[in-house]
Every structure is written in C-alpha cells, then in structure tokens.
Amino acid sequence: MREIKFRGMHNGKWVYGSYTHVTDMESGKPSIIQFGTNIFVDVDHESVGQFTGLHDKNGNEIYEFDIIKVNARFDTAIGVVEWIDTS
User: What angle (nearest 5°) sits at the alpha carbon of residue 61, between those of residues 57 and 63?
Assistant: First the structure.
C-alpha cells in the first residue's frame, strides 16, 4: 500500500504532511499538518499535490502537478503529472 501524503508551498518552500480541508480561521487558507508534529502550516491551494507512490530515477518522490520528462525508445516527452479518474 502506498503512503498517503501531500505537499504544498509555504513562503517559497515545500511543506510535507497531511492535507486538511479545515482552513485556518484567520487566513482562510488550506493547511498541511507537518509529519511528526501537530503544527498546521498555511499553504497555497494551487500548489497542493498528492504523492503518487512513484519515484524518479534519482529516488525523488513524484507528486501531482510535477513536470516530468520521459525518455522512450524513439522519443522524449515532457508532461505534467495528473490524476485521472478511470472508474
């Protein structure tokens, strides 16, 4: 089973943890609860992406909305990681 985790941008840096739909009453922004803490960190809603369970060739985690380059046998493609409901 893959690990369920999210990341979001806060002040130009990635924050990793659990996404919460409850927004901070002062800012009204969505938050990520950092792993190992009870700290809610406001994040830019547009930057939030879920971990896909996959890693790139360097071992880095791949998240939704990452831009990736795929080298196939006869072609190279660049694209954005997106979740598509196939049900």
Answer: 120
